[in-house]
Amino acid sequence: MSRGGNYTNPCLTMHQPWASLLVHGIKRIEGRSWPSPITGRLWIHAAGKVPEPETIKTMEEFYREIYAVHGITNLQFPEHYPVSRLLGCVEVVGCVTREELVSWDEIPEGVRLEGQTDFCWLCEKPQKLVIPFEMRGRQGVYNLERKVYEAAVRGLTPVTSPLPVEFPLRDPSSLKPKSHGASSSSNNPPISSDPNRSQSLVAAIAGARAAATQFSKSNGLQRPSKNNNDFPSIREWRPVSSGTRNKSKELM
Question: How many structural domains comprise the chain?
Fold first, then answer.
């Protein structure tokens, strides 16, 4: 298991409903304006803000649409979206830019449609806690307290994703953008060729982007300081061109 910086049991605090969607295996891409500082297990903690019902509805509709691209229409969403809780963990297997993700032919189209931010953390093997732990979170990636980790690791249970994905990372060339009918520099990811599906999918993507804007830099979710040694580790794993960075919001 690879780590970056001084992380031993790294954890990320996320807003709901994005946190639970990731731990339940529905969300496969964690979008950020900064590259992942680690690979390996990442614990997921839900922030204290109670999600608005409209935000939950919007994000669930977004995932219904992108899974429908593959004919999956019976998604089982979490019954609850708890806050101020440690929810579980995922395996971060790598990080690519949005342009690389939307042009990556080897992964399902629905996964490419999740690429809405500067950097896309590739997540596999979700596990959830049978009983989520109450705790306070922090900004950026941070280490779990040892006593919390030791209790949490015993309470994990594997999650079966609606469409499990294994990102083909062994061949570095597989991460390079490839043509699949849409330019990697396009402002919108490729969508289904079905006109009716395309319209509803475009609307769902727009809704998801709008939902994410409520968590802007002014709310304390800005990119971590470069002085915390987060970034050299990811650049050792995968060089990222600074020319691909823009000012898009984080899709939590």
Answer: 1
Per-residue pLDDT of 156-202, as tens digits, reads 999 999 999 999 975 444 343 333 333 333 444 444 455 556 889 99
**Residue recorded with tokens 């709901």:** 16
Evaluate the CA torsion angle 26, 30, 222, 209 in order and state its sign: negative
| Domain annotation covers residue 5 | no
At 227, list the tokens.
């002085």
Task: Judge whether 123 lies within some domain.
Answer: yes
CA separation for the pair 218, 221 (Å, rounded): 7
Given a contact cutoff of 8 angstroms between Cβ atoms, the answer to whether 123 and 95 are in contact is no
Helix (H) or strand (E) holding 40: strand 40-46
Is 154 contained in some domain?
yes
Question: 60 versus 213: which is more confidently predicted?
Answer: 60
Q: Are 182 and 192 in contact (CB under 8 A)?
A: no
E strands, 136-231, are 141-143, 156-158
The model's pLDDT over 6-38, given as tens digits with 9 standing for 90+, comes to 899 999 999 999 999 999 999 999 999 999 999
How far from 194 is each of 97, 190, 199, 201, 202, CA to CA, in Å?
27, 12, 9, 10, 12
At 137, which CATH number? 2.30.130.30
Domain with 131 in it: 10-169+197-213
Region of residue 84 (phi > 0: left; psi between -120 and 50: alpha; otherwise: beta)? left
Give the tens place of pLDDT for each residue, 85-126: 999 999 999 999 999 999 999 999 999 999 999 999 999 999
- d(Cα 23, Cα 130) in Å, to the nearest integer? 12
pTM for the whole structure = 0.79
